[in-house]
Amino acid sequence: MKMEVRLQKLIAGTGLSSRRKAEMLIVSGRVSVNGRIITELGTKVDPTRDHVKVDGKHLTSAQPFVYLILNKPKNVMSTLDDPGGRTTVKDFLRGVSVRVFPVGRLDFDSEGLMLLTNNGELAQALLHPRYHVPKTYLIKVKGALSNEEISRLERGVKLEDGMTSPSHVKKVRKVEANSWLEITIREGRKHQVKRMLDAVGHPVLKLIRIRMGPLSLGNLEPGEFRFLMDREANALRELIDERMTSVERGEEPATRPKRPIRREGWAKPERSKKFSGKKVKAT
Ligand code: URA
């Protein structure tokens, strides 16, 4: 039986490269099929029979990549095992037969979006500080921050391991003596958000990661997971491709949001938006 797929789809399906990058590899003459350089985009290949090479190396992975997001509940370890016997994220992945690994950590008492995948290369790139992948946290803090304190957080605060790079802070709402904020950072230092808020005198009482790059937690309940949709997995790969390209070109990725920063009112929290994606297994 013939199992033909488009060449760019086959290359993109093996991992790090997005469809766009795969197309670029083909048109720039870096892909060969059965020893012949192919530059035509529509070319169909049979992965069970044809020998595809990129830059002279065989395409390795025949294994499909799996990506899922879990809403980690609080008081759960973000690792797969805990020598102390505490509950870990693995305990919430019932029915997932592929071995997936968490991309980064959340503190034991933090909640929210955790990406898990068996695509090690993509995971490493997402965590690499040079690619500045934004992560947004919905946090409840003690008291209410003044505009000056918010500006300090956004410009960068001094922590014991150095200044933080620029962040973005949005006021969400006030609740009696405390308040909710969204903070977006592009670094991933240990306890970073808690330490930043401590530095401006407003300790974090609750922390929920709601976004990571193009991924949103949506309305997944704590302890629930879902597989990423194809378009979400592609968006992740594209984000990394773009960042790699701009780093290669010596351009610094934007570290500040383009839209103007609102200071005054208290906005609606992002978590109230309904998620309307269908659940499918991504590869
Ligand atoms: N920053 C923190 O302080 N804790 C987390 O779990 C994540 C980010």
CATH topology of the largest domain: Pseudouridine synthase
For the largest beta-sheet, the strand count, sense and barrel status come to: 9 strands, mixed
Q: Proportion of β residues?
A: 25-35%
Order of helices and strands: EHHEEEEEEEEHEHEEEEHEEEH
Number of strands: 17
Helix share of residues?
10-25%
* CATH architectural category of the largest domain: 2-Layer Sandwich
Describe the global form: elongated
Distance between the termini: 22 Å
Radius of gyration: 21 Å
Q: Low-confidence spans: pLDDT under 50, at least 5 residues?
A: 254-264, 268-283
The CATH superfamily of the largest domain turns out to be: Pseudouridine synthase
Mean pLDDT score, rounded?
A: 85
Question: Which ligands does the model contain, each kind named once?
Answer: uracil
Count up the domains.
Answer: 2
What structural class do the secondary elements suggest?
alpha+beta
Give me the number of helical elements. Answer: 6
The CATH class of the largest domain, by name, is Alpha Beta
Topology:
Blueprint: E1 5-6, H1 7-12, H2 19-27, E2 31-33, E3 36-37, E4 44-45, E5 52-54, E6 57-58, E7 67-72, E8 101-102, E9 111-117, H3 120-127, E10 135-142, H4 147-155, E11 158-159, E12 162-163, E13 168-175, E14 178-185, H5 192-199, E15 204-212, E16 215-216, E17 225-227, H6 230-248
Parallel strand pairs: 9-15
Antiparallel strand pairs: 1-4, 2-3, 2-5, 5-6, 7-9, 7-17, 8-9, 10-14, 10-15, 11-12, 13-14, 15-16
The structure holds uracil (URA).
Uracil binds next to helix 5.
Summarize the structure.
By secondary structure, the chain is α+β, with helices and mostly antiparallel strands.
